[in-house]
Write a structure and sequence with these properties.
single chain, alpha/beta, 28% strand
């Protein structure tokens, strides 16, 4: 049985992102993101209805400042008390899990897709998606970039502008490009 590109993507295999089903899902996300980004803030502080319908799940007291962008949205799960500051981008071709109490600064970027190294295969849209997990009470500073497959442990900090290429242990603080542990 031949698997669809979406099934390959969700199974963690190589897939072609230039696919009509995947494009339809990205279009659905663009519409929801547009509704979120152009809606007035909810006076009761409730999570964006457009994103709530799109995301895989979310806890209580979550907030995403506008503008926000995601690739699919359907792979994003937020715990409770999660805050996504303005300009956050989550390219969720794989599951992105953000734990309770985690805060993302402005312009944080989370990427799941890794494009093929072979230029001909890359030109044909071949990529693989790796999950990203942020534990509980994580703080990601403004402008940080989290690369595919990274897990950041509970209570860890990624400093502003960090490019996080590897897992970060619970309670650690990393900064720089590539992000490295800070002492103290």
């Amino acid at each position: 049985m031949t698997r669809s590109e979406r099934q390959k993507m969700q199974a963690g295999g190589w897939y072609c992102c230039l696919d009509s089903e995947l494009e339809a899902l990205r279009h659905q996300a663009r519409l929801a993101v547009h509704r979120h980004n152009t809606a007035p803030p909810d006076p009761a502080g409730r999570f964006s209805p457009a994103l709530a319908r799109l995301f895989a799940g979310h806890g209580e007291n979550c907030f995403a400042e506008a503008p926000f962008h995601c690739a699919y949205g359907i792979h994003i799960t937020l715990g409770s008390n999660v805050y996504l500051n303005a300009g956050c981008t989550i390219l969720d071709s794989a599951p992105v899990t953000i734990g309770d109490g985690t805060l993302l600064g402005p312009n944080v970027q989370i990427y799941c897709a890794r494009h093929h190294k072979d230029r001909d295969l890359r030109a044909r849209g071949l990529e693989i998606a790796l999950p990203v997990t942020l534990g509980k009470d994580v703080w990601i500073g403004g402008g940080a970039i989290i690369l595919p497959g990274v897990t950041i442990g509970d209570g860890a900090i990624a400093g502003a502008g960090a490019v996080v290429t590897r897992d970060v242990p619970a309670g650690a603080t990393v900064a720089g490009n590539p992000a490295r542990p800070l002492n103290g």
